């Protein structure tokens, strides 16, 4: 008998398992709206033109080699990524208060950030929205944090439960970490307004809660890279501390290249900024037993660069996990971000993807309306980003899969990016049948 004979079968991943089931279905009308991956009107995956051009440049450059990257990844990519999310004129970048490391897409960035916090931050509790992307609780639990939730979504209005959010963050222990979706909340498609973000910011800063932004959809929600970064920039602008996980899976279509970045923004100097200063204190405490006995060294410690010490610790998280990140995807991103023409072309392609998704919302809404589908479906056009949180329950979803070969997660989330003008009528038929 195998020494592994006792191993029990694990359930399929609730999101990626949808594709496994879809692939097994021989029906010609089957429709995969499970995983969040962009498809064209023809239902095909795309490689962006700018990505093809960048790859061509990389291939033509014979001086490029396949050596290992440093533990923290491609330096140029890291700098450009911080600029992309924080803005080119970010004071934090100019003051060297941001440390950025290249990670394995958004997921890897969240994991590295989580492990760093579990080792070096005084509060090991992270609050995640209810509901949230299904991988969040697993990533942070395995990183060594303890996971709590805050109310976010109101199923009765299919909108935000803002009162619940304020109450739950208001009663969170001081210093707790709070996971925030920078834009295009997954799975609900419900984002705070700018005024609500400002209230969240004030509440969090007044309680010393530490923001950890998950930015998986910059530019993909509204079509504008700046508009989709606004929440993050509001927190960055107050001078306080935060963590940001970025993914290039969706906005550059680099899903399988696994390219992302973790940025940690810190307070460097005593009294600077208004948002906490925990990292300085933390590092001062844990690394300065010797220094405490000697005034001269204390002074050195206080003026030393916190961001670079944070980076040195991030390297200790990364090195035993995967040693260093892959070179190809980060080189593509850096090539695009540093070249004015490629960058401009990217923003156009990105906006086209966002616009197609937004147009699918209207088409689906209209198709349900035409069929006289009972219920209020206006949330389909109101929600933001890749997904619509339909409000369909798990029995209705199971019915749609069984009878109509429509595949989606059991919470009723559908990927609007997987829909096309051709498939909207079939989906509308399936939803109509499920609710009548
Ligand atoms: N966060 C959220 C909210 C997501 O929706 C996703 C992708 N589904 C990710 C993070 C990470 O994805 P990736 O690791 O492919 O960048």
TrEMBL record:
GO terms for cellular component: mitochondrion. It is an enzyme of class 2 (transferase). Residues 30-431 form the Aminotransferase class I/classII large domain. It holds the Pfam family Aminotran_1_2. Its cofactor is pyridoxal 5'-phosphate. It catalyses: L-aspartate + 2-oxoglutarate = oxaloacetate + L-glutamate. It comes from the Eukaryota. One of its GO terms (biological process) is amino acid metabolic process. GO terms for molecular function: L-aspartate:2-oxoglutarate aminotransferase activity; pyridoxal phosphate binding. Keywords: Aminotransferase, Pyridoxal phosphate, Transferase. Its EC number is 2.6.1.1. Homodimer. Belongs to the class-I pyridoxal-phosphate-dependent aminotransferase family. Important for the metabolism of amino acids and Krebs-cycle related organic acids. In plants, it is involved in nitrogen metabolism and in aspects of carbon and energy metabolism. In eukaryotes there are cytoplasmic, mitochondrial and chloroplastic isozymes. This is Aspartate aminotransferase. It comes from Morella rubra.
């Amino acid at each position: 008998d195998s020494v592994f004979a006792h191993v029990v079968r694990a359930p399929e991943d609730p999101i990626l398992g949808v594709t496994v089931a879809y692939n097994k279905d021989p029906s010609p009308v089957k429709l995969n709206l499970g995983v969040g991956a962009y498809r064209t009107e023809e239902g095909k995956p795309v490689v962006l033109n700018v990505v093809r051009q960048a790859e061509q440049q990389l291939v033509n450059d014979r001086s490029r080699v396949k050596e290992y990257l440093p533990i923290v990844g491609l330096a140029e990519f890291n700098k450009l990524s911080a600029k992309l999310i924080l803005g080119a004129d970010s004071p934090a970048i100019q003051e060297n208060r941001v440390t950025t490391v290249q990670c394995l897409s958004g997921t890897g960035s969240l994991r590295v950030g989580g492990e760093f916090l579990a080792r070096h931050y005084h509060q090991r509790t992270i609050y995640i929205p209810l509901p949230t992307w299904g991988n969040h609780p697993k990533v942070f639990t395995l990183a060594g944090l303890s996971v709590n939730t805050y109310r976010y979504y109101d199923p009765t209005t299919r909108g935000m439960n803002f009162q619940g959010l304020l109450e739950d963050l208001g009663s969170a222990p001081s210093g707790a970490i709070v996971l925030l979706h920078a834009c295009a909340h997954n799975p609900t498609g419900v984002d705070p307004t700018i005024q609500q973000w400002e209230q969240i910011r004030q509440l969090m800063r007044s309680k010393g809660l530490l923001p950890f932004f998950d930015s998986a959809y910059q530019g993909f929600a509204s079509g504008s890279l700046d508009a989709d970064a606004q929440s993050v920039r509001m927190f960055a602008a107050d001078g306080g501390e935060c963590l940001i996980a970025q993914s290039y899976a969706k906005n550059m279509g680099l899903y399988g290249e696994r390219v992302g970045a973790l940025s940690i923004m810190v307070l460097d100097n005593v009294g600077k900024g208004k948002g906490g200063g925990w990292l300085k204190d933390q590092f001062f405490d844990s690394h300065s037993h010797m220094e405490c006995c000697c005034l001269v060294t204390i002074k050195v410690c206080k003026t030393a660069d916190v961001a670079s010490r944070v980076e040195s610790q991030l390297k200790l998280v990364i090195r035993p996990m995967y040693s260093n990140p892959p070179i190809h995807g980060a080189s593509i991103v850096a090539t695009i971000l540093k070249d004015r023409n490629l960058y401009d072309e990217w923003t156009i392609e990105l906006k086209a993807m966002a616009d197609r998704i937004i147009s699918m919302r209207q088409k689906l809404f209209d198709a349900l309306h035409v069929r006289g589908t009972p219920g209020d479906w206006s949330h389909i056009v109101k929600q933001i980003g890749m997904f619509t949180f339909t409000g369909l329950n798990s029995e209705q979803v199971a019915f749609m899969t069984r009878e109509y070969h429509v595949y989606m997660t059991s919470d009723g989330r559908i990927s609007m990016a997987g829909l096309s003008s051709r498939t909207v009528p079939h989906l509308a038929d399936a939803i109509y049948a499920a609710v009548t």
